[in-house]
Amino acid sequence: MNLEKPRSLWNKGFIALLITQFTVAFNDNAFRWLLVPIGKEYANDDLIRFLGGAFLIVPFLLWTSIAGYVTDRFSRRNVIICCKLVEMLLLFVAIGVICLGPAIGVKSSYETMPVKVIILLGIMFLLGSQAAFFSPSKYGTIPDLVPETSISAANGIVSMLTMLAGVSGQVLGGYIFFWTTIYDNNLPTGIPGGERVWITAIILLGAAMIGLLSSFFIPKMKAAAPDAKFPSNPFLQTGRDLAALFSHRKLFIVSIAAAFFWGLAALAQNNIDKFATEFLMVQQQHITVLVAVLTIGIGIGAVLCGLFSGKRIELGLVPIGALGMGLFIFILGFTPSYATEVKAGYGPPLALPYLFATGMMLLAGLWAGLYDIPLAAYIQEKSPITQRGRMIAAYNFMTFSAMLLFIGLGLVSAKFFEMFCEHPSLIIWIVIGVITIIVSIILANWFKAPLIIFTCRILLHIIYRPKIAGIENIPQEGGAVLISNRIGLINVFMLYIVCQRNVRFFAVESMIPNFFGSCADETGLIKIQPNNLKCIVEAIRTAKEALKNGEIVGIFTEKEFTQNCKIKELSPSCVSILNGREYIPIITCHIEGLQDSASNNCNSDNKKIKNIFWRLKNKVIITFKSQTEK
What three-state secondary structure class fits 556? Predict the structure, then answer.
């Protein structure tokens, strides 16, 4: 780990990691989508699409436990540098193989696939292997490179750049094939990808060199678990890692949701190629533009996710993102066809079908960005520090298992639907959309509490638009006591709007509506029964334990605040909680403007509707003040 935790998000180490990660994702995708069109000239298109994805994914399944061990046992910086060196060597060999024959139409002794394509698939497997070791080191490094409160934002940036790198690689992979292939009557001929290979070398090797140089600027780190033992049985260790992940129920559920997303992404990526080739009838360089638009949409969604989340991890966005994603993928299955018959390779990219598909890709990607970012951030931040490498390795195993399963299902589905319709890719879009909508309903149940809290937070923010002063007085880490004036239940949600850290409030159990029961459990609300001494003692004990664990405990008080938001006298409960912990900071929170609002007077008689709307216009001011200040 770093000797000193960075105080800002945009520090040298994090920027270096972003550049390094970008080049890895770029080269993996560029090479894959250079390999796929080359392979399609020699073998079945659906088979090559499947193998191109499978040979990149399978290494993540084979080396998961070993990659987790390496991530914890050695310096993650050194692992990243070694991965970049291996990547450069593999790409150098791959470029040499691409130059070799045979020409299109010339079969090898294998009849169905030339040795050249088999070797390139082998290199794809090795590139996937180095990426399998790079991934847990990359994700495990993020919490050490940025402040704790910036982990969610850092993940959003990493995910956005990863998506951008992926789409850039896929787009350029298609264009590299176009630039390095001779075309006759709009169809490739000669040695596909074997002309002007200096273009391939400049792009792929140049990106690898930039990534290698940037990796040296990542700060030196100590191994997280230098005494970790090499897994003698990698598959058994994978089972243990999965069991460790399963023991943390919330982490396991989040991992399942993330695995579904990446499985869906892998299937969509292959189906886009089939959809564009067989239905839109466009050339390879136009196919990758569709993926580019989809990924740009995901990047926009990631930015919006960061804006909606602030410094929190908003799991409530996950079911919302799934629903939107499913709807637009479903609509994609009804893409209009061309008015007249179009031959392969002659599909006009400015025609209605192509433009319609582009728009749906952008919108589906936007909602996908809202879906994925909170999941990745939650897994990184909530994983136990000493097991973070193992947890991420198990998460990767689930993710890539789902990706392999989904692209396999895509291959089977394509063959199955071909028996019933002319364009199976459209049916696949419809099926994916329906399944995703169903999944969004399941996720809404899994993440019910975060969804309710997020919805209430957004609504209250829109209605009241509170003005905040002194928010910097709330410590970014460590235990603290937050004392707020009592107005009503809305206070709790109002404070959840502005406090970037979770606050464990005291609340009378009988006053908590059943509808918010799951929210109370999610936020760790400390329930009390005023007439039950045993319950009060247990609540105080829970609060003390929370402070010991570095959490914030919130108390609503009837005590009077001074004009400068100082509290004149601590309540007996607060004194009991702080007994022996006088070093714990105390922050007062004074909320004004809510006492006259419609939300707190909804039960009043003779309330006119126009009066309600007038009261909603009240200015809400929330002031935080440290009690240690003079």
Answer: strand
